[in-house]
Write a structure and sequence with these properties.
By secondary structure, the protein is of the alpha+beta class. Helices cover 20% and strands 40% of the residues. Strands 1, 2, 3, 4, 5, 6, 7, 8 and 9 form a nine-stranded antiparallel beta sheet that branches. The longest helix has 19 residues. The radius of gyration is 16 Å and the shape is globular. The termini are far apart.
Length: 162
């Protein structure tokens, strides 16, 4: 079933409100990213359980740098700040303008949507990226085993360009 909001290449400009987060940051070799992502998300879930806090979003990951080594933080949005718990820390996803696309399909094809978003930025010089992009995983792979049905929202925070 295709994404009812449109194809992966449809990019919207929205103004987002800020969100409190519970995240853990990690730096890993790109070949181990999916394993590290699972480990980090598990640590965040355990920290939230200890505090009796429920996430207010699906899992997300924010990328601070990508290459052979990936610096990322992963977690969930929460309704109010959490107490730090080991490597799990409170944080905030900032408010402001953002370019947003919904990627339909498996994670190994996310590059196509990222390329479309970079093209959008190149064609819209009134905006530049403002910090690392992040992904919100709208589909839980454990509930939907067919990767062609997975939906991932990709968000590029923006600021005014020059």
């Amino acid at each position: 079933m295709p994404d009812p909001r449109g194809p992966s290449s449809k990019i919207e400009l929205r103004v987002l409100r800020s969100h409190h987060t519970a995240t853990m940051r990690s730096e890993v070799d790109s070949s181990t990213l999916s394993l590290a992502m699972g480990r980090v998300q598990q640590a965040v879930r355990e920290a939230l359980e200890k505090q009796g806090v429920t996430g207010s979003s699906g899992p997300f990951a924010r990328y601070h740098s990508m290459g052979e080594t990936v610096d990322f933080e992963a977690g969930v949005m929460v309704d109010k700040p959490i107490a730090p718990d080991g490597d799990v820390k409170p944080g905030v996803l900032p408010s402001g303008p953002a370019a947003i696309a919904v990627h339909a399909g498996p994670y190994d094809t996310l590059d196509a949507t990222y390329d479309a978003m970079r093209g959008w930025l190149d064609g819209n010089p009134d905006y530049v990226a403002n910090g690392g992009p992040y992904e919100i995983y709208l589909t839980d792979p454990s509930a939907e085993p067919d990767p062609s049905k997975w939906l991932t929202e990709i968000i590029f925070p923006l600021k005014a360009g020059s």
